[in-house]
Amino acid sequence: xxxxxxxxxxxxxxxxxxxxxxxxxxxxxxxxxxxxxxxxxxxxxxxxxxxxxxxxxxxxxxxxxxxxxxxxxxxxxxxxxxxxxxxxxxxxxxxxxxxxxxxxxxxxxxxxxxxxxxxxxxxxxxxxxxxxxxxxxxxxxxxxxxxxxxxxxxxxxxxxxxxxxxxxxxxxxxxxxxxxxxxxxxxxxxxxxxxxxxxxxxxxxxxxxxxxxxxxxxxxxxxxxxxxxxxxxxxxxxxxxxxxxxxxxxxxxxxxxxxxxxxxxxxxxxxxxxxxxxxxxxxxxxxxxxxxxxxxxxxxxxxxxxxxxxxxxxxxxxxxxxxxxxxxxxxxxxxxxxxxxxxxxxxxxxxxxxxxxxxxxxxxxxxxxxxxxxxxxxxxxxxxxxxxxxxxxxxxxx
Length: 398
Fold this sequence. Notes:
Number of helices: 15
Shape: globular
Strand order of the largest sheet: 5-4-6-9-8-10
Helix content: 25-40%
Structural class: alpha/beta
Largest sheet: 6 strands, mixed
Number of strands: 11
């Protein structure tokens, strides 16, 4: 009996060793497959972010893979997203420990805290507007934020010490005239709702076709019935870099970096809204690549200037306010300006943020002579909730 028991134990030990060997060979083959070669589009290596800033107001420059040669634990430093498990890392990033750490990390369902990346282009006299936008993002957000600011030379000194641009996996781009009335975390979570073909998310340009611009005036292709607005654009950059796009210039599909300039040359006499028009053209030919989110994530004067036409905002409030057409700085839409002034004058002191609601509501009540002012409560519905949620969180998360 003991002899048979020894044979069973020996067989189990051999089986376990064989299993370990099989896993190691699988890891090597996966690394080699991800590492390149073959010339296939799917083999293109993505750009990864290591290190990086840890908060909205204080940023630290990020270092790429080349900054850590020879480290055996370097894959632990990488900020990975929903779509990129450890075993998809290129072989020149890290070795076997990626595979083993992935197995333990995912079996324990432990995910690293990932930064949210927010990009903006600041030109001309947009410094104050940009700073107010960044402030609104910092006040309510929970997870660490990293800002990527594209600015003219004369504005560089104003943004020094905030953050340094590096390539990232996912990115939220916003115009300078954006105000967050809800944590950035919430729109960032929409990345998980992308299906396997979607690379970006935007809101429709109009909800009401009768006042739509693209369907009445555009001289180029555009997405859907009324086009999309690029003032708030959520992107999976890894997918965007890998994808080959259909187009009306050639039967050959082109990558993102190869398609923009030819499109600009073809339509330069027909486009009015610059990059937004080019995006509409691209997603007209590749509609499967776009995730469309509701209008309260990009609420503009068009949604109330002739009467309310954003039903989602009426029900849940405005999540992101977009003050295009300069409405933060003139008297055409005083409801928009009231929100902007309240956040511009707000500091990060707890009592200051809590106390902005009552004066803001009084200012909004003065705007009821306008169509947007008549529905002023949707301007503070979500803002009130965001402020309350902020004080319900533990102090270390504020």
